[in-house]
């Protein structure tokens, strides 16, 4: 009897242990399912918000520069966004211009401003043997624009040479001034350049951190500056007051409050996503336009 | 008999003298040549003769001393401390070398001033994209091709037309100046919107503008040929040639990939063309104006580049190609 009673107690203990283990497992699995479901909701809202933001940005990328310019006056980011999200109500002028892009469960609000911000450097990269264009229309004649560059190869800093093509206008006639800058053969252009040339051709050391620099005097009425990097690519830092180079399009998307996919999560921070696109106003015409005669892939010959 | 013998000797001496002169002239004159002014030359060919011209290094010539070097510059300035070439004259950039024929009859192959240029960073843009937004010129000019560049007096902008229509428009420019008419300052871009096989744009006469602030750009899909009759021999001095109006005051672009894409036919007329001339295929200059003059003289006019950029800025043909995305 005693032996049977002891065995029954052991069985009970085992059963209780098994039930406890089962309950713990069940709770754990349930928690996981709940968290996973919650995350699915968040992820769903996240992607819907991001998709809405991207759609808003793409809609504005298709607009002409002239159309984008009309947004600048009243529909910059400060007019449309605050720390809580969107300004409520949105400025009617911006709504009329199409700042709000609506979808069934989500929406985006798009703001437009110019870049670079006044007083800040303008950074731009270029692949090898390619040209980038800097708008100078509206820049102050007589001022200098400083061009600093770093050669960039496939494995980091590398040697490169820079051609600049400065276009200006005097009366009704356009002028082209061009020059080539290269690094000293005694110093690696990638790591510690280089040389600085004045307009008189007198050189003195001039660097800005890891960048080589030269100045271009903006003679006559400035129009356009094309920079071409040879041998390797280049990272440019344009220093000095230069006019707008393009439009910064900021698009914030969110899941609408009460939408099935957003549920109670709608309007939470997790469901609001921001996309920023910079659209260069200058065309990428290619290097060809800076030469008297150019052939893409063939010879230029007398015969 | 005596008289006959003297005559025979005289004829022989004249023959020898002419032969000698011919040899001297032949040595001094190597081959036809071309030059540019205001900008350089860019070739994406990796051949050893990607850019080929003559270098008539004659001391007596004060203006066009050597190929592709600006007037008055016998040698390109070397910039210290590394003595690289001054690029202010334009220079030559190519994926390969360029071949120079010297006045002594020898040939030299030289690295381009920008060495190791390698492959060009980008392909020629598809300028045919302009067709999508171009205005059909027949709707503006009442269906006639002959008056497009004359009495229609079109406004600056982008227009499209077929090859035959553009040929007709150019052939209808009124002699003797062959002026085209644009109603206000700016650039008229005429884009070819068809692509007939084995056909070409033939420039049979000069193409000139009525004002320095009005210009024409032709964007073709077929070959461009400039006839041997275009140009002249009536150029007083070499310096005068610099300030003289170009025979072709139009920017020529072709996306034709053949050999050649642009051809200036032979003959001895000196021809002056405004650049840029942009070709996807080969550029062939066959004009031979002797050793003292470039057969083809391409003078870069910055008007085209600056106005093209402005035109595109408002139309978004190429500008939209560079957008940077960031996520926050």
DSSP strand tally of chain A? 20
**Which two chains have the most extensive interface, and how many residues on each?**
A-B, 74 and 97 residues
Q: What share of residues are in beta strands of chain A?
A: 35-45%
- What's the multimeric state? heterodimer
Share in β-strands of chain B: 25-35%
Low-confidence stretches of chain A: 184-188, 190-205, 261-270
Walk me through the structure:
The complex is a heterodimer of chains A (303) and B (328). Chain A is α+β, with helices and mostly antiparallel strands and 303 residues long. Chain A has two domains: 1-116 and 245-288, no CATH class; 122-243, Jelly Rolls (Sandwich), CATH 2.60.120. Chain A is built from four helices and 20 strands. Chain A has helices at 2-61, 65-72, 77-80, 92-97, and strands at 81-82, 85-86, 100-102, 106-115, 122-126, 130-135, 144-153, 156-157, 161-170, 173-181, 196-197, 203-204, 207-208, 211-217, 221-230, 233-239, 246-255, 272-280, 293-295, 300-302. In chain A, the strands form five sheets. In chain A, strands 5, 7, 8, 13, 14 and 16 form a six-stranded antiparallel sheet that branches. With 328 residues, chain B is α/β, with parallel strands linked by helices. The relative contact order of chain B is 0.13. Chains A and B meet through helix 1, strand 6, strand 9, strand 10 and strand 15 of A and strand 1, strand 2, strand 3, strand 5 and strand 20 of B. Strand 19 of chain A pairs parallel with strand 20 of chain B.
